[in-house]
Amino acid sequence: MSPRRHFLSPIVLTVVIVLAAAHSSSAQQLTLTPYKASGTYGVGEKVGWTANLPPGSAPTGDYTYTIKKNNQDVIKTGNLDLATGRATIEVTLDEPAMIYVRISTPGGSRPGSSGSIAVGAAVAPEKLLPSVPRPADFDSFWDSKIRMLKAIPENAVLTSSDSGTPDVEYATIRMDHINGTHVYGQLAKPGHVGKFPALVIFQWASPPYPLQKKWVTDRAAEGWLTLNIEPHDVLPDQPPPYYSSLPQELKNYQSIGRDDRDKNYFLQMYLADYRAVDYLASRPDWDGKTLVVMGTSMGGQQSLCVAGLNPKITHVIVNEPAGCDSNGPLHGRAAGYPNWPSNNPKIMETALYFDVVNFASRIKATALVAMGFVDTTAPPVGIWTAFNQIKGLKEAVPMVDSPHNNLASPAQQRPYTSRSAGWLNTLVHGQEINPSMELTGSSAVGSGGQVTAADQPAPRTDRNSQIAHIHLLEKARKGGIDIYFEGDSITRRWGTSDEQYKDFLANWRQNFFGWNAADFGWGGDTTQNILWRLNNGELDNVNPKIIVVLAGTNNVGNRSPEITDPRVADITRGIKAILDICRQKAPRATIVLIGITPRNDNMAVMPIINSVNDNIAKFADGNTIRYLNFNDRLADKGGKLLNGMTNRDGLHLDVKGYQVWADALKPIFTELLGPPGHSRIYLPELKEYRRSAHLPHLPRRSLSDLYRQKGIHLFPARSRDPLRSR
Question: Which fold has domain 452-676?
Fold first, then answer.
């Protein structure tokens, strides 16, 4: 492909501040452009915004601003001097924190009014730690409550009714619960017989309200076995007068038992969530593999807490979860909903048993967590703190200009709505989730929230990846490998025996049968993770003749680029480090370096991919390192993927895309190794070999003679692929 030049336009946050002008009915626009479009900075780095008025206009009043650290402590105030039409707001912090800025005009200083606007930023958010330690008896407290719950039979009662959606079954549900209460909700599932992935939806905070049928039927139409429960002991499908006549105490439920952990309202709520998960997991129409919990605000709070309690949950998807870092106000951090008073020591002590942060370290499920940088209902400092405590695979979705979801525009919430839709679509089709491992542009986030540059090895600590590493070591030690494929899920899916990728494996065998090719890709890996695996034995003494490397897409992620995006240089260094370790471990191998393939989950990242590819192409010498970029056969000139090249996520190759890759590789393989040989065939592959080699239909004895003439040796079945999805 010919080199391309790319021009990145800055991401601009534009707000309209309505000024009180006596003789003007027009609105004046103030444009705020962050110094870094990601909104994320390092400790000691200057954080700032440039404010501009439209050309030719003059300020019609004073613009004042207030800067708060962690949405609580005021650290700076000032006036914007817009006499020239331009001004800046700047601050520097020497510690991890969130920054919240409120800009006001005379007559419009009230937060939320048309005369004020908020912007936000993060300073090393991956390093934020809990305000206070977890209670020593936290685990034993919740273990005892779960035992109490399980002693009560659920006695589920389903009442079917018309779903209003073709091929979808619907029912309301009631289950028995602690203290004589009940769990109410609604259930929907596809109308045909089968086993389905499960989804539990938890609700946001409010005085009790009815559940909308479409919340579950729409998901069921997509293929989910879906349960949506009320957070309260109220019927889910009643007319408005039913809810308006409920006791006032229930409408102010967050105050119930807030100074007594055994009577706290969230105790019954979290246990109801646990019961809902257990119920879905017990149904015979659950597929036994995928169980997702999701919610927004208090629904996100419930999702994270129950994921810390119930190990049956496989994935968590949450938007701006409430209830994080409840004791934050005692340590310079705003806490937000449930807004428990921080001046009452007993309430603060009780709150720790219901704080999302203290459940997060128990979460083993793969998690997607979104936070709004200007959210005052669920402040982002607490959400980042909870996110950092999650030890499993996880992905943060920063929404730089978003307030809480009920106050935000669709555009402000789009990072979450787009990414969560992608996760759900991937999961409902039985595919694996590969969280974007980048956080602050070019850095990878492993478990524990630690950030590592792209050229530094970093291990995966989730159990599946640890098991995979053990089996890949075993695979490497067996030897007999001439072509060694290294990469992430795009590579792995091609050569795995997972049932959902059987068409990919058939394509792999069709193209590479007889070349002794082995697949060492692993889903979700960044360059850091690949480096760690290579540094820890997966290429030791393998001595392949060819190494094929495709890496970097998980470092790119799907976050829109900055004006000068650090990911380009960082990923380039990461890929160079992979080449260096491959050369060190296999000095005689020819390395075939593949350009990062297009991704359309966010077209805005294509310039980053193209720039990285331009850089890594320079590593090739045409001899020991070959560079191969076939993106012009996968996508058009603008990077838009051609039909059929990837699956629905716009990232992972489909059979058609893999064939493009194979067609580009085979001439190189033939040049270096000669045509594929067939000296070793495993019995289960014999039928496929006969078909691909166009052998005649002969009696078994005649075929055996033919095999011997061709120098073919038959072996028993391969051992079961140890890297199937778990």
Answer: Rossmann fold (3.40.50)
